[in-house]
Amino acid sequence: MAAPANMSWTFILSGIPELGDHQQWFAPLLCVLYATAFFGNCTILFLIRMERGLHQPMFMLLAMLAMTDVGVSLTTLPTMLSIFCFNYNEIYSELCLTQMYFLHTFAAMESGVLVAMAVDRLIAICDPLRYASILTSSATGWMGLVIVIRGVCVVFPIPFLTRRFPFCKSRVLSHSYCLHQDVIRLACADTTINSVYGLLAVLMTKGVDSMFILISYGLILQAVLKMKANDARLKAFSTCVAHMCAVLLFYIPLIGLSVLHRVGTHVSHLLAIIMADVYLLLPPVINPVIYSVNTKQIRQKMVQLFRKRRVEVQANGIAVIKV
Fold first, then answer.
1. How many DSSP H helices and E strands does the chain contain?
2. Which of 27, 218, 255, 298 has the fewest Cβ atoms nearer than 10 Å?
3. Around 261, how many Cα atoms within 13 Å sit in the side-chain half-sphere?
4. Which CATH architecture has domain 10-322?
5. What is the pTM of this model?
6. b/e map of 166-195 (b: 16 or more CB within 10 Å)?
7. CA distance 269 to 18
8. pLDDT tens, 232-266?
9. Could you give phi then psi for residue 115, rounded to 5 degrees?
């Protein structure tokens, strides 16, 4: 019997069923990944906030990327830890819809930030003399505001469209968190409106964004190939390496997960679970590492920060010994 649409119900989240009762073995690795994501992104946010030399469009966009990564991590943290650390896999419908909303919203925001970063690199390489006049602090702030508003507004109808469904089939979800396409799969009603709007939402965000990123890098490649000096070419490419890695980390798992949802039963369930976890866990963990290694200013400020902390710890230790 289908539950009324306005009743509260529970879904069953899936961890890694193939591990059986040994799922908790995955908990230490999961805790390390989340700790790394929080520490890395919060360190970048702290450096950009405290260092005036980093108050530039490129680094402000990097701060936005770090904030979206923190948002994604905070959204998935409760259910992931409850499953793998405490073996608790139930989630109430309202919490599931809330998690779904924030998860898709932060994903849309991250996609928008990656577009803004691609535009930043395009202007820096193709029109460097006008870079400071085009990408002002005000322009960067407006870009960030548009990215947030777009993500919030595009995803806003989805939880309300999903809430009206009755669920009479199995309520076992495929992942450790709530995704729109995964939830409506279990509905005992016509989900055409949700499917069409979900597709439109993806096209309006990630579809449009990926097209602009491809166009931006096409123009960047064209500009770089026109450079006569090899050193200039290498320098131009090196400024794009970190961003290209961030784009690949975001879009490759996303495309893979979308393909797996389309082909359905023709692929391994374990592969779909791994791809979904990689899609949400890998970018927040790897992005800070990539930008710390490839961005000279961030790397230098990070080294200075840890040296300063080390000196303070040593000074405090000497003071304690003297007392």
1. 12, 2
2. 218
3. 20
4. Up-down Bundle (1.20)
5. 0.88
6. bbeeebebbbbbbbbbbbbbbbeeebeebe
7. 9
8. 788 887 888 888 888 988 888 887 777 776 665 55
9. -65, -45
